[in-house]
Amino acid sequence: MLTVASNSASKSGTWSPEDTLLRIMRDPTSIVESVHEQCRIDDWNIDVTTQVRFNKAQLPDTEWFYLNVENPDKGDLHTYDILTPDVSPATHDEHIRAAQRCIATRYASLIRSFRFKNDVSIHKKNEILQKLVRIAPQLNEIPKNNPLEAIRTFHKLFDKDRKQLRDLPEEHEAEFSSQNAEGLFTFCKLVARKYLSLARIPSGNNLPNVVEFQSKKDFDIIRKQEGQEGSTQPETNGFKLGKLKDSIKYSTFAAFPPDIRLHLSWPKRTAHYTLSIHAPAGRFFSGNSSNILTRDERGAMYCLRPRKDDAYFKWSLAQKETVRTRSNLFIGDASLWKQPIYFKTTHYEIPGRSTLRMIGLTALAVAMMIVMTKEIEKEQLVHQISAILAILALGLAVSPFGKDEGFSNVPLLSRITPAVVFISLCVYIAWAITKETIFFWSNWGWAVPIFSVGVLLIIHLRRAIHIGRDFCKETKVVNGGGFAPVLSYSLDHAR
Fold it and tell me: Phi/psi of residue 459, each to 5°?
């Protein structure tokens, strides 16, 4: 017959670090008082500084405890820097042991909740408990196995529809806590695919005012082919074209996407979450770009909008800076919201930079080619080519080199424009030299480079007008759900 050890906290009155970890994971809002995250977009990464403040009165009596900082995928090397003294990251072996201890604690709680029916024989009871004894070592292997083996073991042991172990007794045999059964299911599902990234935090009088750490956050590239939030899935062909376009834009040219989406995990772990996100240097957030997103029951994305019948968690979104280089977000009481929460934004280049230079370059190239096309003579060809070469040199001078170069600072269109102008002018020179050899080429060869550069000129003009209008929009504050203001939260306060 299976013998289950009692919870250490119940006997001694003290809590082990694993007990506290489980409590934080079950009911994080009771212990995590507030969380502030400051994000800075830097090339293909987003640097995140996270500050966590705890409710000291609600912490169990223990010398130190574990905090689950993140849940990276198994095999993914995900590091973070702890900035608070006396707080240290747990080792890999500690992660595994803590996960195993948490599984054992949840498993023990589930078994202690058994209440066998009176008509169940002793033999049947022992048979059920022996099955549970045999699967205990398999549960223990889930945290340390590779993802493939761990997921295979998980599906072998658990019924995903009922969200509980397959070998649990039937209703006519025994009653047990469905909450404990689902809690074990959820935790094992988590550690089968991911691992716990834990930090050791001193408790009691040594508890820091704020635990602060830095990490890098991944983001999702928003594809225009996905359609509007809340819409149905796009057609397969459109989605494939979108992926091909993204591959060309973001891989071939190493361009940073202006539309990004961040998954926010901390709002569900505290009743008071704030976020400050800074745009890359030389860029600003679009006036209509920043939104809070979630998913519906079908998994489709949609934006949260303030409505009279709003029953969502509290949130507010503010863009108060003159040029909207920073967005402030507040989310409160989101722990009961089952769907994931995202922050979506779009950033553009501040007017008067590379876009304006590209307008000057393309306009000059078009004007020069039109003037020279009107009447170009053979004896003047050398002078004409010299003028074109001067334009090429100008294009090289205004190209985004040096300190302006980077993943996020220079728009993709500004990157490729000098190259397109260069190729177009080379084609124009070829036409000027060989125009008398081919009849059709002689009459219309000039139109190809002029048309190419002219199209670029129009695109840049439209882009400049669009960005200028967006840049001049008034800042705004959007409040949704039960409104709560964005509180001032400084990174400079005492730790």
Answer: -60, -45
Inter-residue contact 176 to 110 (CB < 8 Å): yes
Which residue has 């302006």 as its token pair? 404
Among 86, 107, 137, 102, CA closest to 15: 102
How large is the greatest C-alpha to C-alpha distance in the chain, in angstroms?
Answer: 112
What distance lies between CA 132 and its chain's CA centroid? Answer: 40
What lies within 8 Å, CB to CB, of 184 at 6+ separation is 103, 106, 107, 110, 164, 165
φ, ψ of residue 215 to 5 degrees: the values are -155, 180
Query: pLDDT by residue (tens digit) across 217-241?
Result: 777 665 443 434 444 343 444 444 4
pTM of the model: 0.79
Residue 334: CB atoms within 10 A of its CB come to 23
Closest to 430 measured CA to CA, from 360, 364, 369 = 369
| 110: DSSP letter | H
pLDDT digits (tens, 9 = 90+) for 76-121: 777 788 999 999 999 888 889 999 999 999 999 999 998 988 888 8
- Which of 104, 107, 33, 57 is CA-nearest to residue 269? 33
End-to-end CA distance of the chain: 50
Name the token pair of 317.
Answer: 């979104």
The enclosing H or E element of 133 equals helix 122-141
User: What is d(CA 395, CA 327) in angstroms, rounded to the nearest whole number?
Assistant: 36
Half-sphere exposure of 133 (CA within 13 A, CB side): 10
Q: What are residue 109's DSSP bridge partners?
A: none
User: How far apart (Å, rounded) are the C-alpha atoms in residues 371 and 361?
Assistant: 16
Q: Where are the alpha helices (DSSP H) in 377-411?
A: 381-398
